[in-house]
Write a structure and sequence with these properties.
heterodimer, A: mainly alpha, Non-ribosomal Peptide Synthetase Peptidyl Carrier Protein, Chain A, 0% strand, B: alpha/beta, Rossmann fold, 2 domains, seven-stranded mixed β-sheet, four-stranded parallel β-sheet, 15 strands, tryptophan synthase (chain B)
Chain lengths: 92, 450
């Protein structure tokens, strides 16, 4: 995946996160190093699934269970990386 | 007169039924637990995305994966019986039918969702399933279901049930599961519960909370639940889908469908397909959930947002509840001691689409024993709640001189519960129920937090 596409995907994924989690923040505040447990994001297992289903709808893909279960999700960057990888592998 | 209605192996349902596609009411969505910035380690989704999609989607029928259906076909379709000897004993004009799930390898309906969940978790790369179990039916079902997918199984079993039903623990261990009595010293949740009460009988809420903590501490382990979640209810609809065909063979449609109510998967599994069919066949059909007096979440609880586990780390759902810290009195029907009713069943009850009744243990065992004497099948104490309600319906039909078709779910056999029946025969069964003050005290923190 080239850098421009990577950045574009990251932007779209962060937009989905902000929308699904109803975060009252700008995209730039979702820095890659921000912990998923931080008060800014406040992610849990359920809201992660909400985000993934929204991603599926937006990109018209089906995410495999194994991709999600095997991911090491600690911060915004790792979540964006996991989702970008799945979208890229699906040929988008 | 036919007394048993069997289907062929190829009539095992090909699809699960998702009632969300047909309900004219809204089932409130689950709400995430409050954020906890003190959490450490990676965020681990506990539920495979496939199961989440099944829980929230609007697709009416979901295809059962071939490997799961092949497992079902090892013992399904389960039989549906006409309880003609019970009818005779009751001298009732009512026709009584029961769908029997006790023929499964684990002896109850629980394996219908255990196999489905094990398939999805195994496919996701999970190596160990961790769960809490009340009476042990769910734990033994999950222990068996993990085998085809090469997964380990760890079960936190409620202490009171483990003491009452030690052979359930044996059954789980025979299937390779690690069985831990809950509250335990293995987890912080368990240690806290034991500090509060060293003799705590435990609850399913505590066992589940321990299982969640334990699973979170192990990289390739995941927590799984066998009762009130939407996807669990959906997996159990194979019961009702088969029973629909079997009632067709019998040439009747039920006026009332009855199921014992723990968190709701047994009740929903039988009743939901009949709810769909009743819209055309018999709109007057009633659906009756039967719970114990000792844990009256529907008949005496409130419709509130509450957590499904004791520690409150799970998402909150809108349900009829006695509060997630409610400590039900010890009863032999340990599978019915759960504090809340499934969100879908709760929403239907809230909108008067299903009814609920509660029974004391003495009456439940009296009816369970009468059923065993008439029909030969010993019902699990949980299932005997449905038997009791079916008998009362049949007696009312006799008093009203009315023809009535009654269908109930016999969700499991009671052959591992004979000590409970021994207590009944010895006159040692006692009725117990929480006081209004106890229920109010348990619910108040929830009401205050809203």
């Amino acid at each position: 995946m080239d850098r421009a596409k990577e950045l574009d995907l990251a932007t779209q994924i962060k937009d989905v996160m902000i929308s699904v989690l109803e975060l009252n923040i700008g995209r730039e505040q979702l820095d890659e190093k921000v912990s998923l447990y931080s008060p800014i994001v406040g992610l849990d297992s359920l809201s992660l699934l909400h985000i993934l289903v929204a991603i599926e709808k937006r990109f018209d893909i089906e995410i495999d269970d194994e991709d999600v279960m095997s991911a090491e999700l600690r911060n915004v960057g790792s979540l964006v990386h996991m989702i970008s990888g799945v979208i890229d592998a699906k040929g988008h | 007169m036919h007394e048993v209605f069997n289907l062929d192996r190829d009539q095992v349902p090909t699809h699960w039924y998702n009632i969300l596609a047909d309900l004219p009411i809204e089932v409130p969505a689950a709400r995430s637990a409050p954020p906890r910035s003190d959490r450490e380690g990676p965020l681990k989704p506990q539920l495979p995305l496939s199961l989440y999609r099944q829980s929230t989607g609007g697709t009416r029928f979901i295809a059962i994966p071939d490997p799961v259906r092949a497992e079902y076909q090892r013992w399904r379709p389960t039989p549906l019986f006409r309880a003609s000897r019970l009818e005779k004993a009751l001298d009732t004009p009512a026709h009584i039918y029961f769908k029997y799930e006790g023929t499964s390898p684990s002896g109850s309906h629980k394996i219908n969702t255990a196999l489905a969940q094990a398939y999805y978790y195994g496919r996701s790369g999970v190596k160990e399933m961790v769960t809490g179990t009340g009476a042990g039916q769910w734990g033994s079902a999950l222990a068996m279901a993990c085998h085809p997918y090469g997964m380990e199984c760890t079960v936190f079993m409620v202490r009171s049930s483990h003491e009452q039903k030690p052979y359930r623990g044996t059954l789980m261990r025979l299937n390779g599961a690690k069985v831990i009595t809950s509250p335990s010293t293995e987890t912080e949740v368990g240690r806290a519960a034991l500090r509060a009460d060293p003799d705590s009988p435990g609850t399913l809420g505590i066992a589940n909370a321990e299982a969640i903590e334990y699973a979170n501490s192990r990289k390739e382990a995941r927590f799984s639940i066998g009762s009130g979640e939407n996807h669990v209810l959906m997996h159990q609809t194979v019961i009702g889908e088969e029973a629909l065909l079997q009632m067709e063979l019998a040439g009747e449609f039920p006026d009332v469908v009855i199921g014992a109510m723990g968190a709701g998967s047994n009740f929903a599994g039988l009743t939901f397909p009949f709810y769909r069919a009743a819209q055309a066949e018999n709109p007057g059909t009633r659906f009756l959930a039967v719970e114990p007096d000792a844990c009256p979440k529907m008949t005496r609880g409130d419709y509130l947002m509450d957590y499904t586990d004791y520690s409150g780390v799970t998402p909150a759902v809108k349900m009829y509840t006695l509060g997630h810290r409610f400590m039900a009195y010890k009863i032999h029907a340990g599978g019915l001691r759960y504090h809340g009713a499934a969100p879908i069943v709760s929403a239907m009850y809230h909108h008067d689409m299903v009814e609920a009744a509660s029974y004391g243990q003495t009456r439940v065992f009296e009816c369970g024993a009468a059923f065993a004497k008439a029909e030969g099948f010993v019902p699990a104490p949980e299932s005997a709640h449905a038997v009791a309600a079916a008998i009362d319906e049949a007696v009312r039909a006799r008093e009203e001189r009315a023809h009535r078709v009654i269908l109930f779910g016999l969700s499991g056999h009671g052959l591992l519960d004979l000590s409970a029946y021994e207590s009944y025969l010895s006159g040692e069964i006692v009725d117990s129920a929480p006081t209004d003050e106890e229920i109010k005290a348990s619910l108040q923190p929830l009401i205050d937090s809203m």
